[in-house]
Amino acid sequence: MKKTVLTLVALLMAMTTLAQRTAIILAHRGGGTEQEENVLKTFQHSYEAGINSFETDVRMTKDGVLVISHDSSLERTCGIEGTIERMTAKELRKVKTKQGSPLLFLEDLLDFLKDKPHLYVEFEMKTDDKVKETGAFLYEGERLEEYCNKMYEQCKAKMPKDADWSLTSFDHRPLQKIHAQHPEAVLGLITSEGCTEETVKLCKQLGVRRLAALLDKSSRKGVKTAHVNRINVNLWPGSKFSDALLAMYLGADYICTDVPMGAMEYLKKNPPGRPYRF
Predict the structure, then answer these.
(1) What distance in Å separates the CA atoms of residue 68 and residue 175, rounded to the nearest whole number?
(2) 234 and 256 in contact (C-beta within 8 Å)?
(3) Fewer CB near the terminus (10 Å): N or C of the chain?
């Protein structure tokens, strides 16, 4: 009987903690699939709609300038041949997307964000692409070092003081480099696995404080394991409005959604029972 009571108390305490924890819902690539990805007008429109939390992707040009783009190739988004890492910033400033938008550079995004209060931003470091002909990484050696230094220094210099921001990656190498040089940096591991004991253990080995894991492979038990180890959890991708609700029930701290506008309206009509913000 005593054991049952203690179990119920522990369960109630866990439920109370979860109810008090505010979930942050962030717009994937600035606006998800509802808008054109990773361009300035999308970040502007999302912010004007009440979204203060974003995920975006950062690459580096041939001459060392950081640019916002999920893909290394320009084919899908711009309809032309070309690789960001093999072109100069001057060349890329002449490129337009299929919808007529200029490519967005990190310095310009940071200038837009620098006076915005209460932001949460994840900057994904896209360093794991390889050269098809050789299998070598596009970023390695001195180039990877340059990328890591510029990512950390530029974001640190321009992100608002009250902003919560992190550098994330599937690639372990930039996470290890930045952690070694800047142990105070908030870093996040992205994985195509769920939030499990194994992925939590990997985060601890890498020295990262956040884990972005697949929603469909994660469980409440896995999220609780992360929290016990003081690792915050981002569950992705939110491809449906209701995914945000499921991620909240699982205990996610952050929820990366492709449909932020739709999810916002859905949650107004279907209150999740815990605080959240966009």
Answers:
(1) 19
(2) yes
(3) N
pTM of the model: 0.92
The C-alpha atoms of residue 170 and residue 202 are separated, in whole angstroms, by 12
Residue 23 in contact with residue 247, Cβ under 8 Å? yes
As given in the structure block, the two tokens for residue 229 are 């180890």
Pairwise CA distance, residues 177 & 276, whole Å: 33
Spell out the residues 6+ positions from residue 128 whose beta carbon is closer than 8 angstroms to its own. 137, 169, 170, 171
Residue found under tokens 């009440």: 50
Q: In tens digits, what is the pLDDT along the chain, a chain of 278 residues? A: 544 433 333 333 444 455 578 999 999 999 989 999 999 999 999 999 999 999 999 999 999 999 999 999 999 999 999 999 999 999 999 999 999 999 999 999 999 999 999 999 999 999 999 887 788 899 999 999 999 999 999 999 999 999 999 999 999 999 999 999 999 999 999 999 999 999 999 999 999 999 999 999 999 999 999 999 999 999 999 999 999 999 999 999 999 999 999 999 999 999 999 999 99
Tokens matching residue 182:
């800047």
Residues 28, 237 contacting (CB under 8 angstroms): yes
Q: How far apart are CA 223 and CA 194, in angstroms?
A: 9
SS3 209: coil
Tell me how far CA of residue 5 lies from CA of 179, 224, 228, 248, in angstroms.
43, 21, 22, 27
